Amino acid sequence: MGIKERIISIMDESAYQPLIIEELMKLIELSVNEKEELQKILEEMINEGQAIKTRKKRYALPEKMGLVVGRLQGNARGFGFIIPDKKEIEDVFIPADFMNGAMNKDRVIARINSVNTQTSKSEGEIIRILERANEEIVGTFERQRNFGFVIPDDARINMDIYVSKKDSLKIKDGYKVVCKITRWPEGRRNPEGIITEIIGHADDAKTGILSIIRKFNLKLDFPSDVMGEIKDIPEKISEEEILRRTDLREVKMITIDGADAKDLDDAISIERLKNGNYKLGVHIADVTHYVKEGTKLDTEALDRATSTYLVDRVVPMLPKKLSNGVCSLNPQIDRLTLSVIMVVNEKGEVKSHEIVESVININKRMVYEDVSNILENDDKELEKKYKDLVSDFKLMEELSLILRKRRENRGAIDFDFPESKVILDEEGVPIEVKKYERRIANRIIEEFMLLCNETVAEQYYWMNAPFVYRIHEDPSLEKIEEFNKFISNLGYSLKGLANGIHPKVLQNLLKKVSGKKEEAVVNMLMLRSLKKAKYAVKSTGHFGLAAEYYSHFTSPIRRYPDLAIHRIIKAYINNKATDKWVNNMRTKVVSISEQASMKEREAVEAERETVDLKKAEYMQSKIGETFDGIISGVTSFGIFVELENTIEGLIRLSSLIDDYYIYNHDSRNLIGERTRKQYKMGDIVKITVSSVNVLQKEINFTLLDSANSTVKRTKD
């Protein structure tokens, strides 16, 4: 145990009292000559928020002093929440007057000022900013007579950035810019900055996406030293490499992906054995053969940690030469893979499996739509075109339905929310927004990847290997009880919550509400009651999948955790997992898990923002038009309505002029004080698109003739 670990261990003891440095030296048995080293370690701990130094020069852990260290999550209304580093500590509310110059995503220390004894909710004040997160801010420039200011795109930064007249002479009003902070906010003083980059006019169709790319620091290009490393990667696989691998080039296999996908990282083979079992092969691109540990390419891949799929482009984790080239499982070309070959019985149980380094050659590249049309619609033309594969498709469907049934039986929760597909023209202007269909071919691939990911995770769990797991923690009892309180208003209830909740209970509820008017609201609020999945080094299970062991193994082209566990698996396959290697890898997987979880959250947020932006642009041309929609949310300030094409807009409470409406938090509905008219989630309404704010990605609706009550009830 190092000095820092010993200090933390001592300070964490219940009997510990804050000590001066000399007292600490005696306690951890350091000599006078080691005082300088101890001072450096303590200073480092203070800078990282791991320790606190009091005014009397005594040292202690922050939590022992009533302090919390974590990330600040800002809010457009000025207040914020601290998401603590220590996961066992609840979030802390920070009122606007106690933000003390901190901004969204800053790493901070806060003092707890009060705790609500009934709810255990804490309220505090930021006393120190450890790390600034917003060195540069993307926003819209607005000119005044003697100065300018930048309105941040990030609504959670509720302060405009002041730009002096001399620093803004060349900047035109209404342009999207990047602003570098030169002076941080203090008290009520706004931050100050200088313009370092002009992105384009806010009304330009391409500017919005570029602004989001800059806001999330997504890197469109790869550094020259990274590109230099890959320029000599051969397109052809050497005979020597083929000879040392399991040769599966004669095995019939296919890929099934979206029509526009270019980074194909999974292939499937299937056959029925004589005893009735299924032999399922999941063959995943062997990215680690090309991305060597410790290279500049590997460092860059970890820094990105994921490919980000924006509405108009992909920002890849790996350069295109790899992601769309030598790693992609294109047809009729020899490719290197890591294959998981499973024997599955008629109950969907994996009776045996092996993981091998392999070489494959894909027979056909299929798309979801064609396979689905063959299986769902008996498309004769497609059946003729792919006659050699139709029996395989049917066998895949048969096995996938068995696997799905098995997952359902153990309690896996399947939220079938419609995804959006935004169609753009060549100029980046949205011309159509529609639901993205999740059909049988999509579900086949989902089931096979889920099975593969579970199989790999379970094997390496029992091997006690250093690993990156995909976990989904059990929901907090508080959130589930709040959800239960709401559904009781709809005539439903969750039983036996005292000892936690099993996913099967939630799955059964989803089945009960399926097809009913409250289905959308129950699905949405249930999802919000659950925690977010993340990467971790300890396998604590996946609540949503009702799986004891789970990992991400099947997408190493676009996710670093998958690449990392491929590297681990290959070390064990090739007998290179020495004790020294294992100890080193146990440290590495901690930082990999944290980095991947953080980057995944950012990528999801960026992807959602680009979709919301293009939806707003699309609806700008629909102002004045009328649509039918379903109430998807009810709040104290208005009603959210979702249209058939997945676009959501807000009917502001102030626009309901036929009555004074009161919001009921428990039942999540609005009730007219005089008429007793109600607006609930799941109700069908007719709306008019009244206004759109593209910059804020906001769409506003007006309820058509609210005085005459156009609200309809969907059938139970």
Q: Could you give the count of β-strands? A: 33
Give the rounded overall mean pLDDT: 91
Helix content: 25-40%
Low-confidence stretches: none
Strand order of the largest sheet: 3-4-5-7-6
What portion of the residues fall into strands of 2 or more residues?
25-35%
Number of helices: 17
Distance between the termini: 63 Å
Shape assignment = globular
Classify the secondary structure makeup into a structural class: alpha+beta
Largest sheet: 5 strands, mixed, barrel
Descriptive notes:
This protein has 716 residues and is an alpha+beta fold. It is globular. The protein has five domains: 3-62, Arc Repressor Mutant, subunit A; 66-131, Beta Barrel (OB fold (Dihydrolipoamide Acetyltransferase, E2P)); 136-202, OB fold (Dihydrolipoamide Acetyltransferase, E2P); 224-469 and 547-608, no CATH class; 622-708, Nucleic acid-binding proteins (OB fold (Dihydrolipoamide Acetyltransferase, E2P)), CATH 2.40.50.140. Helix 4 packs antiparallel against helix 17 (579-620), helix 11 packs across helix 12 (440-462) and helix 13 (477-488) packs antiparallel against helix 15. A hairpin with a 4-residue loop joins strand 17 and strand 18.
